[in-house]
């Protein structure tokens, strides 16, 4: 790697904001001998451009010895982020490759067939006459031979050990804040009717410890291998059989990894096993011949993904740049992903968006924990109506946190008579519903679930949003419960804060953009107090300026009529002179509330956040 090339590799014709200083700091961090540089860059920093500049510092093929790695990888966990890269003319030399299922076969009778189910994978010995023009193999060949290959983190991890995508000189990971969680998710093994093709034929015992899960995994891997070999012995497979064969191959790899890792005395990984109750539709039939109780679907989870990351990420490059707005604590992040903190540099990029353009407002109506949700949700629904009155001509986004909360809010808002301005989505149609809402010119309000990240709502696409629930992780999850039993509360609050900061960036995307964020769950105020030491300075400034807005009286008809219902509320995200003048009083009230809540729950922090529903 040659860090001195970073300015020449920057793809834009000029710098904006703090980009030039960021490049200088990144260059100096690598020049100082660091193998890994964390770049904490807030929304609007142009992280993709910085990423391209770092990738451009990689050793070239011409400069490398035959045994030396050259070129760079750009990877991101977000599919939408990769789409943005592919569409950006300034990043045209990032050669994008996606998984086979994203490409269609070009044979005349197979135009609607994804490449991973095409004749070349269905028929033994099939010689494709147009393989040289196959969109997947063409993109793969280009990406593997060019200086910078771009792909999702999932594809990047899946190609670990590939002869095509070998080790490179530089690896850049964009949106890297969730790297540990993504690794845990990818390494998690789900065994049930949706993931095991012959689940109904299996007899699954009750599994009460990891050792028994290992023995069951060994037996299941052998069964999968026999079934896969039977499929491979056939001359031709149907698309369904191809899917089964590929899934069996994946499952064998997952099970073998789990068994070998558990048996490795040097592995740092802690494994947890959850089992659902058995029923007649999953886990096979109990014929009474076996004395062992019948068990249900299994989830096998790794707690410490360092070894998995070593194989899938850290062994893939010489130098690494990890970029995100929300790597909140360097040492904690390094521990989670298996890096030594004193060998990692952190580069902070300053925020260039005026703080007054990204205001936070306290409209808390109570706690949204499962115990209190029934009382608080109707109050939040009424508040949303008042906010619709405050923003009559502007689109709004409601972060409902879960489908249960989304459904409750939607029903209440319809009962209040404002349903015609409300849009919702389900699990299957979320992307289509989002795009339809974004394309509309109507000031509709979108009730979303899990859209705190990777969403670009610039300008009039959205001017205000509501956080309905503090995004604490589900304490009913065995991984979360295990960490909290070990006292990892700082991690718990930091993870929730990270999601809040990500959400706040959805509606303000440029220095001249503006958007308001309203906090409806009082636990959010408590979160800010508990996690304050991990806040970036620029977000702490937002929190310190937080105020309580003066909202119009509850008049649902006014939320549809196009009348403000209150004067002086237009402009920067609905800010007003009245709001600013009340800011000091409101901040004091909010902070007192947060400290009081913290004090009352100091003996048992889970009392404030316990939520098994998510």
Automatic annotation (TrEMBL):
<dbReference type="InterPro" id="IPR010614">
    <property type="entry name" value="RAD3-like_helicase_DEAD"/>
</dbReference>
<feature type="domain" description="ATP-dependent helicase C-terminal">
    <location>
        <begin position="403"/>
        <end position="526"/>
    </location>
</feature>
<feature type="region of interest" description="Disordered">
    <location>
        <begin position="547"/>
        <end position="614"/>
    </location>
</feature>
<keyword id="KW-0378">Hydrolase</keyword>
<dbReference type="GO" id="GO:0006139">
    <property type="term" value="P:nucleobase-containing compound metabolic process"/>
</dbReference>
<dbReference type="InterPro" id="IPR045028">
    <property type="entry name" value="DinG/Rad3-like"/>
</dbReference>
<dbReference type="GO" id="GO:0005524">
    <property type="term" value="F:ATP binding"/>
</dbReference>
<dbReference type="Pfam" id="PF13307">
    <property type="entry name" value="Helicase_C_2"/>
</dbReference>
<dbReference type="InterPro" id="IPR006555">
    <property type="entry name" value="ATP-dep_Helicase_C"/>
</dbReference>
<keyword id="KW-0067">ATP-binding</keyword>
<keyword id="KW-0547">Nucleotide-binding</keyword>
<feature type="compositionally biased region" description="Low complexity">
    <location>
        <begin position="595"/>
        <end position="604"/>
    </location>
</feature>
<dbReference type="GO" id="GO:0016818">
    <property type="term" value="F:hydrolase activity, acting on acid anhydrides, in phosphorus-containing anhydrides"/>
</dbReference>
<keyword id="KW-0347">Helicase</keyword>
<feature type="region of interest" description="Disordered">
    <location>
        <begin position="268"/>
        <end position="304"/>
    </location>
</feature>
<dbReference type="GO" id="GO:0003678">
    <property type="term" value="F:DNA helicase activity"/>
</dbReference>
<keyword id="KW-0238">DNA-binding</keyword>
<dbReference type="InterPro" id="IPR027417">
    <property type="entry name" value="P-loop_NTPase"/>
</dbReference>
<protein>
    <submittedName>
        <fullName>Helicase c2</fullName>
    </submittedName>
</protein>
<dbReference type="GO" id="GO:0003677">
    <property type="term" value="F:DNA binding"/>
</dbReference>
<dbReference type="Pfam" id="PF06733">
    <property type="entry name" value="DEAD_2"/>
</dbReference>
<feature type="compositionally biased region" description="Low complexity">
    <location>
        <begin position="274"/>
        <end position="284"/>
    </location>
</feature>
């Amino acid at each position: 790697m040659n860090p001195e090339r970073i300015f020449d590799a920057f793809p834009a014709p000029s710098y904006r904001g703090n980009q030039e200083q960021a490049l200088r700091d990144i260059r100096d961090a690598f020049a100082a001998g660091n193998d890994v540089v964390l770049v904490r860059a807030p929304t609007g920093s142009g992280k993709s451009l910085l990423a391209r500049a770092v990738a451009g510092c990689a050793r070239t093929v011409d400069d490398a010895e035959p045994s030396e790695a050259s070129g760079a990888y750009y990877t991101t966990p977000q599919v939408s982020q990769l789409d943005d890269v592919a569409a950006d003319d300034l990043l045209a030399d990032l050669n994008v490759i996606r998984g086979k299922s994203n490409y269609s076969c070009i044979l005349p009778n197979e135009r609607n067939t994804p490449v991973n189910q095409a004749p070349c994978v269905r028929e033994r010995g099939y010689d494709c006459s147009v393989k040289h023009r196959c969109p997947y193999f063409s993109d793969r060949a280009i990406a593997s031979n060019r200086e910078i290959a771009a792909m999702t983190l999932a594809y990047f991890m899946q190609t670990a050990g590939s002869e095509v995508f070998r080790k490179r000189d530089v690896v850049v990971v964009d949106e890297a804040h969730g790297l540990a969680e993504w690794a845990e998710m990818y390494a998690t093994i789900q065994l049930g009717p949706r993931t095991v093709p012959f689940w109904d034929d299996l007899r699954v015992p009750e599994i009460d410890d990891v050792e028994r899960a290992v023995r069951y995994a060994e037996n299941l891997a052998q069964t999968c291998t026999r079934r896969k070999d039977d499929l491979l012995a056939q001359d031709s497979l149907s698309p369904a059989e191809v899917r089964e064969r590929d899934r069996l191959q994946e499952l064998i790899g997952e099970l073998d990894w789990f068994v070998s890792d558990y048996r490795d005395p040097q592995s740092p990984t802690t494994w947890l096993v959850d089992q659902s109750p058995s029923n007649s539709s999953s886990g096979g039939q109990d014929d009474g011949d076996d004395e062992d109780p019948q068990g249900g679907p299994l989830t096998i989870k790794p707690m410490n993904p360092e070894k998995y990351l070593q194989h899938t990420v850290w062994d893939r490059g010489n130098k690494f740049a990890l970029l995100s707005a929300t790597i909140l604590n360097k040492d904690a992040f390094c521990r989670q992903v298996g890096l030594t903190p004193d060998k990692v540099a952190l580069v902070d990029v300053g925020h260039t968006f005026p703080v007054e353009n990204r205001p936070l407002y306290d409209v808390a109506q109570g706690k949204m924990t499962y115990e209190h949700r029934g009382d608080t949700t109707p109050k939040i629904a009424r508040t949303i109506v008042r906010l619709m009155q405050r923003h009559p001509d502007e689109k709004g986004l409601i972060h409902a946190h879960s489908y249960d909360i989304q459904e409750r809010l939607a029903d209440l808002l319809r009962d209040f008579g404002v349903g015609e301005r409300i849009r919702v989505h389900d699990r299957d149609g979320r992307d289509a519903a989002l795009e339809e809402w974004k394309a509309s010119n109507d000031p509709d309000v979108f009730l979303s679930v899990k859209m705190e990240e990777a969403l670009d709502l610039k300008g009039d696409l959205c001017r205000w949003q509501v956080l309905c629930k503090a995004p604490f992780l589900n304490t009913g999850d065995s991984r979360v419960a295990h960490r909290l039993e070990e006292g990892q509360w700082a991690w718990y609050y930091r993870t929730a804060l990270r999601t809040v900061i990500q959400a706040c960036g959805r509606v303000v995307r440029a220095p001249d953009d503006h958007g308001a964020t309203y906090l409806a769950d009082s636990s959010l105020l408590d979160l800010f107090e508990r996690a304050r030491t991990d806040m970036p300075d620029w977000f702490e400034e937002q929190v310190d300026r937080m105020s309580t807005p003066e909202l119009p009286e509850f008049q649902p008809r006014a939320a549809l009529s196009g009348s403000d219902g209150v004067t002086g509320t237009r402009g920067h995200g609905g800010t007003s002179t009245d709001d600013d003048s009340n800011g000091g009083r409101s901040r004091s009230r909010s902070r007192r509330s947060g400290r009081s809540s913290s004090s009352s729950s100091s003996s048992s922090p889970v009392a404030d956040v316990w939520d098994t529903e998510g």
